[in-house]
Write the structure tokens for this entry.
Amino acid sequence: MTLLQTLKNSQVMDNEIQELMVPHERVAHVQLKNPLDHALLVLIKSGYTAIPVLDTDYKVCGQIGKAQILDSILGIERMEMERLHDYKVEDVMTTKVPRLNKDETFGKALMLSINHPFVCIEDDDKAFIGLMTRRSILALIHRYFSKS
Ligand code: AMP
């Protein structure tokens, strides 16, 4: 039996993603209107490459990373550091962000994690409740195969 068949036939694919989620209280995030210098500070202090962008209602609007911020201040001859305070997160972020409802199955999260390091988890009102990361997905698969 292939690895995929084993996963499909097992309970691991039906685990609800909430069980594996990093809860929102532990997620570093920024808001749409934050200046870029604040976003860069959060990214550097947290050590993450990219983090979610939320609005004031705690809804997911996109994601922002260090590379995007640095790219946005790149002038022709120098890094234009003053732009860090002039630009806001909403000017630079990408709105392409993978998201799933909290009641989706682990299988869907697994598929999304192939191309995305994290997936935003939302409740039924589309409010952000946490992240599913590649680490948590791999940890679950590792646990499953260590047992069997
Ligand atoms: P990991 O699988 O733990 O390496 O996480 C994958 C990606 O998810 C990281 O590179 C970050 O972009 C994001 N991430 C993980 N944990 C957090 C967190 N607590 N707060 C914000 N972003 C996170």
Summary: Helices lie at 3-9, 36-46, 66-72, 83-86, 89-92, 106-112, 134-147.
